[in-house]
Amino acid sequence: MQEYKLYIDGKFCDAEGGKTADSINPATEQPWARIARASRGDTQRAIQAARTAFDIVLRSKSSFGVRLNAVLELMDIESATGNRVAFERRRAEGEASRPRMPPSMLADFYYKSGVGLARFGQIARARDLLLAGQEHSETYRLNTWYFRFEHTVANLSGCEIREPDPALTEAREQPPAIREVAIGLRDFALQAT
Asked: What are the beta bridge partners of residue 12?
């Protein structure tokens, strides 16, 4: 039986505590491989390694497209891990680069921005971005993106809609640095309660 380890920070490694699980072949209902079971610590190490790798790309002399793709991936990581301040920072970086994005990258930006906003309960803003992405995808005949947007918008109907945060509304009228601090303070206050 084959064994598979975790791949974290450019190296294959065992899971913390050495936990494994058998992967079952659905056709034979027999185990075909043993895989490492990642712990919370393993997951955090992998996320940190991904952030570090993307930050290295951002500081490199790579092309605009490569650096911007790293921004979009970091934005997605930050929303998935619940880091609202970092998500908004990366989203603002992406927003500033929108005019230079090729069509498929702009679709990716709309999608990751919309999904990220939905993760933070900003359903109306998320829907607007996802619908804009769907329209963009239709214009540029990006069929796979079009259907992804369509499916995601349909799934937003059951999500909890939160009222826009007044602190964020006021902060949007401020310079980016002040807006970032306002968002951070608001998030800190929410976590403290």
From this structure: 7
pLDDT value for 171: 43
pLDDT of the residue at 99: 95
Query: Which backbone phi and psi does 8 adopt, to 5 degrees?
Result: -130, 130
Query: Could you tell me if 77 and 87 are in contact, meaning their C-beta atoms sit under 8 angstroms apart?
Result: no
Alpha-carbon span 89 to 23, nearest angstrom:
39
Burial class (CB in 10 A: 0-12, 13-18, 19+), 122: buried
Q: For the beta carbon of residue 93, count every other beta carbon within 10 angstroms.
A: 17
Using DSSP bridges, classify how beta strands 6-8 and 11-13 pair: parallel, antiparallel or unpaired. Answer: antiparallel
Among the listed residues 40, 42, 33, the one whose alpha carbon sits nearest the alpha carbon of residue 15 = 42
Query: Candidates 1.10.10, 1.25.40, 1.20.120, 3.40.50; correct CATH number of 41-178?
Result: 1.25.40
Residues 6+ apart with CB under 8 A from 18: none
103-113 pLDDT, tens digit per residue, is: 999 999 999 99
Low-confidence ranges of the chain (pLDDT < 70): 160-193
Q: What residue segments make up the domains of the chain, in order of their start? A: 2-38, 41-178
- CA atoms of 80 and 41, how far apart (whole Å): 16
- H helix count then E strand count, the chain: 8, 5
